[in-house]
Amino acid sequence: MKIAIVVGTRPEIIKMSPVIRECEKRNIDFFILHTGQHYSRNMDSIFFEQLELPDAKYNLDIGSSTHGEQTGKMLIGIEEVLEGECPDIALLQGDTNTVLAGAVAASKLGIKVGHVEAGLRSYDRRMPEEINRVLTDHCSDYLFAPTEKSRETLIGEGIPDEKIFVTGNTIVDAVFQNLEIVNNRVDILNDLHLNAGEYFLATVHRQENVDDNKIFEGIIKALECVVEEFGQRVIYPIHPRARKRIEDFDIDANKVELIDPLDYPGFLQLESNARAVLTDSGGVQEETCILNVPCVTLRDNTERPETIEVGSNIIAGTSPEKILDSVRQIIKVEQNWANPFGDGRAGEKIIGILERHV
Ligand code: UD1
Ligand code: UDP
């Protein structure tokens, strides 16, 4: 069996790392195809280095663009590589444009498609990620659903049960595998002069939030209100898309501490010691749930409803009043919920299933 592992962005590199490690462990013939959707060092190569991943055999260097242009260029580049390499299966993770391009390119070449993190739905078509998820799931041959709930969603959309495998989410593997490094090698709390449990962490980067002047301004205002009401710092490692919008819209974010995006161990340490996290990220909603840290989601919906059910997360929307109210609520919650995303062996299960079926 030969596997093409396609990645393009920060969360895909992190969430594919357990799958890549498992391929190495079992001596499987695989190669990494990087679309280059993310390319800044702190959004890309830093994760390859720290997670000790092999270099990508191909990097298409596609970079940033409109959705159509970016996805189109990826489709052309991925097709060319897959035609030359003839893998048995292309493995994709998540809901980015890289994933959609990979799914379309592989399925049209008659190469099997495996979708890691299948069956997530926000039911919000304003999100480009929702379109990518639906289309990818419907042209996949192996759908690795993180939870029973995501399996049911797929069945509800008519996808045959025999294509679906509930494996847990590889983010649990990534968190467990990296917490050890966090505890031994990094001390970002010290570097930033923070005490555990006495600061808030924020990440905001979604297109529908940061590309809208009013919405983004409201979110920043909410973060400033958190600083004022609780008298504690809000640290915001800012995604380059959001940094650009702060400048374009000339938003005043003086009370919030904007820092460059962090490497994975550094971010995990800040996340696991925060009093609460305010985010619109998908992966961060999952990680806070796994790390027993309260989370407020700065969106109107989530494709991770398991976090709401166990009580780790509140959907706040984007208005400053509701965000502040949700923070007041979430910090009172007892932090003892069970992690719904699996036992940290998703990578092992995914490769085991492929070895038996492909
Ligand atoms: C993409 C994904 C999103 C995911 C996020 C993870 C899609 C549609 N969106 O959003 O689902 O949550 O990645 O972080 O696939 N930029 C840089 N350096 C980089 C990458 C981006 O400066 O390495 C800046 C550029 O100004 C670019 C902007 O960020 O225009 C947006 O990048 P893009 O890859 O289009 O989308 P993300 O917002 O990163
Ligand atoms: N992350 C990181 N450094 C940061 C911010 C986030 O390593 O400064 C990690 C985080 O731990 C999580 C992933 O990036 O594993 C989430 O990626 P992102 O929020 O960009 O994308 P999403 O999950 O929303 O698609």
Q: Strands of the largest sheet, in order across it?
A: 3-2-1-4-5-6-7
Q: What would you report as the Rg, rounded to the nearest angstrom?
A: 20 Å
Low-confidence stretches: none
- Total count of helical runs of at least 4 residues: 16
Rounded to the nearest angstrom, the distance between the terminal CA atoms is 7 Å
Which CATH architecture of the largest domain would you pick? 3-Layer(aba) Sandwich
> Hey, roughly how much beta strand do the residues contain?
15-25%
What does this molecule look like?
48% of the residues lie in helices and 15% in strands. With 358 residues, the chain is α/β, with parallel strands linked by helices. The protein folds into 2 domains: 2-169 and 342-357, Rossmann fold, CATH 3.40.50; 187-330, Glycogen Phosphorylase B (Rossmann fold, 3-Layer(aba) Sandwich). Strands 3-2-1-4-5-6-7 form a 7-stranded parallel β-sheet, with helices on both faces. Strands 10-9-8-11-12-13 form a 6-stranded parallel β-sheet, with helices on both faces. Helix 1 crosses helix 7 (170-185), helix 3 (67-85) crosses helix 4 (97-108) and helix 7 packs across helix 12 (264-272). It starts with a strand and ends with a helix. Bound molecules: uridine-diphosphate-N-acetylglucosamine and uridine-5'-diphosphate (UDP). Uridine-5'-diphosphate binds at residues 10-11, 14, 203, 205, 237, 261-262, 264, 267, 281-284, 287.
